[in-house]
Structure formats: C-alpha cells, structure tokens
Amino acid sequence: MFARCASAKVFVLLIILLSTKPLLAMEHSEAALNSLLYQVQFVRLIKPSTQIEQDYRALTLGAMELKLARVQRIQSELEQFWASLGVPTNAMNLKGSDNLFQQVLSLEPISKDYLATSNKIRYLLWLEQKGDWSELVSNSWLKLGDKHNLVSEISRRLKGFGDLREYNPVNTLFDANVENGVRHFQQRHGLKLDGIIGPETLRWINIKPVKRAELLAINFINKTSYLASIEPSFLIINIPAFELELIDNGQVALQSRVIVGKPYRQTPLLSSRISNLVINPSWRVPRRLLTRDLLPKVREDGGYIRARNFNVFDSQGLLVSKTAQEWQDLAHGRFPYRLVQKPGKENTLGRYKFYFENKYSVYLHDTADKALFEESNRALSSGCIRIENVEGLANWMASNLVTDKQTWVDMQIERQKTQWFSLDQSLPVHLVYWTAWVDKLGVAQFRNDIYHKNSTLNSASAHLSP
C-alpha cells in the first residue's frame, strides 16, 4: 500500500516537473531578454543610433519570436560596445554555451554596482514619462514656513526622486516634511545642508530624470573601466565629490573629505605612486602663487612675511633679512626672492605631506585651516589636495609602508624638524573625475561639474577620462 502511494507521488511529481519545464524555459528567456533590454538602455543613452533604436523597440514592443530572432546580433553589438569602452564582462568565458540566459548574463559588466545603477536608470527613464519636467523659476528663496505655488510641484519632484516621504499635491506650504525632503536632496547632491531652496538647489531640481540617467550611465562606464585596470590597493580622490578613499586589498580602509583646486587652478586628473611621506614639511612657495597670492598680502602688510614664519632667499640661496617696510616696498615692484615657510603649527602644508611624482607639482597634504572642510563646495586650493583625516592616512602608511618605524615614533612630539620617510613600497594614487554614481545603499549621488567636463553629454568620448 505504502509502495503504491509512493510510486504515485513520484509519478505526479514527474508530471509536474515535465509540465513546468517549458514554463521555466520561458521565464529564463524573458529574464535574458530583460537583461539585454537594460544593457541596450545604456547604449541608447551613451551612443544612440538608428540600429540601437530598432533593437530597443523590438525588445520593448516586439513579439517573443521577433525578440529571439534579434538576440544573437544584439549580443554581438553589446559585446563590442562594452569592450570598446574598456568595461570588463565574462563574455569570452561563455562563448560555447547554448544557454541563452547564461550567455546574456555573461555580457553584463563585472561591477558590484551594475544592477543597482541599471535599475536606477530604468526608474529614471520611467519617471521621465510620468510628469511635466519643464523648468521651474522662482524669484525668491523658499524656506520653512513659506507659502508658494511652486511648493507642490517641487514636492512632486522630490517624491519622484525618492527624497520626500509624503506628498500632498495641493499643499503649498513649505512645512517640515518638505524641508526634510530638501535636506535629503541636498545631501546626495553635495549641496549646502540648509533645507532652503536657493538657486543652486533649484537648478538641480530642474535637472530632468533622463539627464540624470545619462549622467549615471556615462559615469558608471568611466568608473568601471578605470577601476578594472588598477591594483587592488590604492588611494583614490574623486575631485568633484571632494572625497578620498584608501582601498586596501579591495576593502575600504579609510575615507576622508578633501579640498581640491579652484576651477581656475584645477587639480589635474592623473595616476601616480606615493613614494615618500614627509612629517613637518616646509613649504617652498611656487612662483605663480607668490605672485598671485602672497605678494598682494605683503603689499598690504610688510609684516606678513615674519608673521607667517617665512624665510626669504635670494637667487644665490642666501638668507635675506629686511624690515617690514622694506618688504612692503619691494612687493610693489620686481621681487627677486623666493619664500620658504618653516615647519610648524601655522605651516600651510600642516603636519604631513605625501609626495608623488607628476608634472604638475601637486601633492597631498595637511592644512592649518581645518574649518574649510565644513564647506559644501571645497574647490578652494591652488591645485594640491588637502586631506581632513590626514592623521589617519599618515598612521596607516606608518603601520603598513614606512620603512623606519622607530624614527616615526620618535618624531611624533617634534613640530619644527622636517623628516622624510621612504616607503617599503609605493602606493598607487589616482585623481579621478566622476560626477554621478549609485552608492552602497542604492542611492543615486550627483555632484556639481566644478571643472565643466560634462558639458557634452551626447559624446561618450568626452567623458571617458580618468
């Protein structure tokens, strides 16, 4: 009796499995086609063409037979597209596979944030079709307690972008709910967190979902192709984000806010290697900074040189000493001297300097002006990068890379003596420029294009830079 029941159950289970096999195959085919569609969306945003439009329409509107008939050619186009931009995939590993689902998955970029970015792009393209995104104009700043007709439309957009929890379409009051939404929006756009809609916040609110999708797609490709070619341990500074990350064997070991170059004194994009760490550095003032920045201050106050602890040298390298009035007079004409600021608490470079070879004479360093790290726009330097968590970075290097650890320990109480430390092995450093990404929590982040490098969104090549 039991054997007959067991046999019957096995038979029924076999019938179920056989009947569901076509269904599973259909589901796999649909999943494969969806993956192709999402990849085609990337191409459509970055490199639009008549062919890609036809592929997009076929994958969205065509019958299953039409979609499947186009699969092989679309796969070939996508493989070439990702490869041409340096985006790694597993396509070569599954050349012989006859499983459509596996073939298509192998074409997807190898990146932890690909699916999150793809989903965000898909949502933004959907959002573009769901409302009016015409430009909003306000003649006044909007803040908590204000009543204004724009509040309702701004709230709708903040809700769509995921920054506002509750949305009342007839509400015109700038209440606490709206203020919280504005703050969240400002935070993920690198804006001043004041909860006020001024010109800069309104400018970002006016950026349409499709433009945001383009920014995410282009920056994803820039970032993914760049990271695919570098070592597992490195220091990276994203200039428009004003952020530094230290990656140790693929894991984030340290993060810090940074200050970068002003738009007219830009921090360059480059890759190099940090070879030396300097404690208590002196600062030899570059000639252009002397002319642009320091001499105007000396012309106002001849005592500036002494007050800021500068030594002055002539062309022969001899120390020169003059009165405050003499320095003030000399600053109005030709100034044939060079200035070197002695190490100490007031030194412009602060406590540490990290040297890496480059043709721009830029480096990473500490700063005596810590308050500037609280600014939302930290494009404030003359090209070098100032690090907020400089102590953490220096200590990590001392523990992991510094050769002479005993001297390092001995120097911790010294503030006037300069000491260079060579590293056991150099640390790769990368200065990059990415203005949009999806973070680890799945939140889309955007930053101001401080150096105007994203001006031509229609040309992918204009964005494919370090």
TrEMBL record:
It comes from Shewanella psychrophila. SUPFAM superfamilies: L,D-transpeptidase catalytic domain-like, PGBD-like. GO terms for biological process: cell wall organization; peptidoglycan biosynthetic process; regulation of cell shape. The active site is at H365 (proton donor/acceptor), C384 (nucleophile). Coiled coil: none annotated. Residues 233-412 form the L,D-TPase catalytic domain. InterPro entries: LD-transpeptidase_YkuD-like (IPR052905), LD_TPept_cat_dom (IPR005490), Peptidoglycan-bd-like (IPR002477), PGBD-like_sf (IPR036365), PGBDSf (IPR036366), Transpep_catalytic_dom (IPR038063). This is Putative peptidoglycan binding protein,Ykud domain-containing protein. Keywords: Cell shape, Cell wall biogenesis/degradation, Peptidoglycan synthesis, Transferase.
